[in-house]
Design goal:
The complex is a heterodimer of chains A (117) and B (111). With 117 residues, chain A is an all-beta fold. In chain A, 0% of the residues lie in helices and 53% in strands. Chain A has strands at residues 5-7, 10-13, 19-24, 31-38, 42-50, 53-56, 65-71, 74-79, 88-95, 107-108, 112-116. In chain A, the strands form 2 sheets. In chain A, strands 2, 4, 5, 6, 9, 10 and 11 form a 7-stranded mixed beta sheet that branches. In chain A, strand 4 and strand 5 (42-50) form a beta hairpin. With 111 residues, chain B is mostly beta strands. In chain B, strands 2, 5, 6, 10, 11 and 12 form a 6-stranded mixed beta sheet that branches. A 4-stranded antiparallel beta sheet of chain B has the order 3-9-8-7, with no helix packed on it. A two-stranded antiparallel sheet of chain B has the order 1-4. The chains are: A mainly beta (117), B mainly beta (111). The A-B interface holds A 4, 31, 42-43, 45, 48, 50, 55-56, 91, 93, 95, 97-98, 101-111 and B 31-32, 36, 41-46, 49, 51, 89, 93, 96-99, 101, 103-104.
């Protein structure tokens, strides 16, 4: 089975440009999570979806960030306009639902490394 | 809410050395506990888990025992290899199906 697929793997852009990161979760997984990882702040949860519906976007840093999940097999994270401080590795992860207080195992993609100049 | 604390890194060990990475948690009740591992250039992956007190999770030679008395879930391995060089994250459930990760501990194993 294919794992979580993210694209692009690397993105270098200039400040002010729009960036779109893409994610295809594992088929059958109801949950999709977007994380950001930096040396300074570690791993941060930005937003997550359940059955394509955003559940908690409290981790989205600013209005410049937006995420969508138009169907069960695709999600995007968009940054517009991008800034140098957005440089990070962005991970998408998917999982099955929690069962009897045991969260489903998170399956992570390989990440999208974003550099904003 | 639930939270997790783990030892600061980086940790550098020689091959075949004994490894311990400390993890303590604060939680309501007795949640499941996890260790995730991130190899260089990859996303995180589940290493092991324990679902109730006194359970021992194990995988790839790593072990962790769920200690409710000390609210701990320390990761151990008797003999580390160069291929174990990675970042290790302790984790537990948060609210509404989220997973709360610790800050991660970087391990470097030198030949």
């Amino acid at each position: 089975d294919a794992g979580v697929i993210q694209s692009p793997r690397h993105e270098v852009t200039e400040m002010g440009q729009e960036v779109t990161l893409r994610c295809k979760p594992i088929s059958g997984h109801d949950y999709l999570f977007w994380y950001r990882q930096t040396m300074m702040r570690g791993l941060e949860l930005l937003i997550y979806f359940n059955n394509n519906v955003p559940i908690d976007d409290s981790g989205m840093p600013e209005d410049r960030f937006s995420a969508k999940m138009p169907n069960a097999s695709f999600s995007t994270l968009k940054i517009q306009p991008s800034e140098p401080r957005d440089s990070a590795v962005y991970f998408c992860a998917s999982s099955r639902p929690t069962i009897r207080d045991l969260p489903g195992e998170l399956f992570f993609g390989e990440g999208s490394r974003l550099t904003v100049l | 809410g639930n939270s997790v604390t783990q030892m600061e890194g980086p940790v550098t060990l020689s091959e075949e050395a004994f490894l311990t990475i400390n993890c303590t948690y604060t939680a309501t009740g007795y949640p499941s506990l996890f260790w995730y591992v991130q190899y260089p250039g990859e996303g995180l992956q589940l290493l092991l888990k324990a679902t109730k007190a006194d359970d021992k999770g194990s995988n790839k030679g790593f072990e962790a025992t769920y200690r409710k008395e000390t609210t701990s879930f320390h990761l151990e391995k008797g003999s580390v290899q160069v291929s174990d060089s990675a970042v290790y994250f302790c984790a537990l459930p948060g609210s509404y199906d989220k997973v709360i990760f610790g800050p991660g501990t970087s391990l470097s194993v030198i030949p």
